[in-house]
């Protein structure tokens, strides 16, 4: 039995706002093995980016545990924290604002290695060129600044920077959302190749269901800070159970003319995550909601083997 | 042909600046929109889609933009030759535009109801009470309670704001609606609501539409015909079902092969190699040739013409399947 690389237990992150507490991440649990990708999917405001940042401990958690390689990182010393940060990295969504405009490609990619202080100047230089080769960035760009490069190339810099100190695990926060499809495909292939070679684990955060299906082993579907469904990637698309997941899948426009599919149009919009009401958070928009859904919060239960759903009536929705 | 509400003929638009030189944004683009029809313009960032729409609205800032040649016929009348005063009358009345970003399309310090009223007051010669009534009616039509007439844009979510923008655009019952990425900023479930609403309103009002998007899924759901735009040119145009099935132009094929498949199993993606050409220095022959797997010497010699493949399906390629 191998222990998972990362284990998150009952993780909570509340923000204090004038009206009370904003439940950004509310009781989320999952684990990731080496070489695996966990897809986190949900719409704006569901807490997926906050989850990524809390897992990396860029934000303090309110409650819960983050066990990385057998150690709870929420409780370790600052020195240990710094050491751990070298093993966990992040790739940001926006390749424009996530790079320092006054740093060259070389400075950006080498910065983390210089801070880590384990490599000589020459080794760092070789590693920068090696990384540029890995991410497919021509060496002639080594002294250019971000504004001279297009979005796809900038995102490659972000990936090279994340890989530079050989992390075990990377949070990819919407890494391809700002890119055109042809460039998006190049970057997705790159991330998949890097994983196959290095055995790195990813948390892949996105709102794009076809992308998350393509890259993930397991997927969690988030809504208002909570996980509503968790299952293996292919299974989610063949057999979604939660009414929200079904609506989400049905809403994706498929590039096939006259494609016949079941579409549940959701009514209304996401409700406020500030002081959420008791009961199921999706109930106000759910066509199948009954009194019980507004009164008590459903448990996150295993409905089918390795298929967890947070819904009182999940059994009814199994097809 | 009188049944076309819009005919764009040989439109060429350039942006000129001293620093960058001449940027060839739109190159000899021609397409028609029949009455009641929805035509999609699909392509990636920088393909020239928005420039085409802004030319039709006559909203291009000149300089730096300049329309070098071409005609844009709206109901047989050339928009490019209209006096400004006449154009102001038509804009918002006969043709309307929905912009991508609902946050910046609305005035943040004006009540949404007033922003709709302003439009009808101007074009339909109504008094204050009448235009307010009309605005309330429009709000209800896009699914917003009329009671929210006095709310400001910041009190609405992204999806609701886009509904307000749509209400403004449709308030005067335009004959032609230009929608520039109307749902790109929205979440999928909200996108589904808005697309559904737009489709219903279109049928109800008989509006013709030009839909600009980069999302092939949105095209499949909403468009009768589609034009694939690359480097300022239409590289393939035809009915949506034929274009999506045949994917004759190598660029169209490349776009589809870049998309992760949500309906089937997992395959390795086949991205298009390289990047879009620099619009200040476009290749002489086929604009796609530097990235094309089928390209040979004959593709780079001279500009390629759109050729008829079958029926109403045109493709700009020497190497396409079947030739």
Question: What report would you give on this structure?
Answer:
The complex is a heterodimer of chains A (319) and B (323). With 319 residues, chain A is α/β, with parallel strands linked by helices. Helices cover 32% and strands 24% of the residues of chain A. Chain A has helices at residues 48-55, 78-85, 105-116, 121-135, 151-163, 181-198, 209-215, 233-238, 243-251, 291-295, and strands at residues 6-17, 20-32, 37-41, 63-68, 71-72, 88-91, 169-173, 201-206, 218-223, 226-232, 300-304, 307-310. The radius of gyration of chain A is 21 Å and the shape is globular. Chain A starts with 5 loop residues before the first strand and ends in a 9-residue tail after the last strand. The mean pLDDT of chain A is 91. Chain B is of the alpha/beta class. Chain B has an 8-stranded mixed beta sheet, sandwiched between helices. In chain B, a hairpin with a 2-residue loop joins β4 (65-74) and β5. Chains A and B meet through α6, α7 and α9 of A and α6, α7, α8, α9 and α10 of B.
Provide the helix percentage of chain B.
Answer: 25-40%
In percent, how much strand structure appears in the residues of chain B? 15-25%
Q: Tell me the span between the first and last alpha carbons of chain A.
A: 33 Å
The largest contact between protein chains, plus residue counts on each side, is: A-B, 39 and 45 residues
Number of strands of chain B: 12
Class of secondary structure makeup of chain A: alpha/beta
Domain count of chain A: 2
**Oligomeric form:** heterodimer
Strand content of chain A: 15-25%
Low-confidence stretches of chain B: none
For this structure, what is the CATH homologous superfamily of the largest domain in chain A?
P-loop containing nucleotide triphosphate hydrolases
SSE pattern of chain A, N- to C-terminal: EEEHEEHEHHHEHEHEEHHHEE
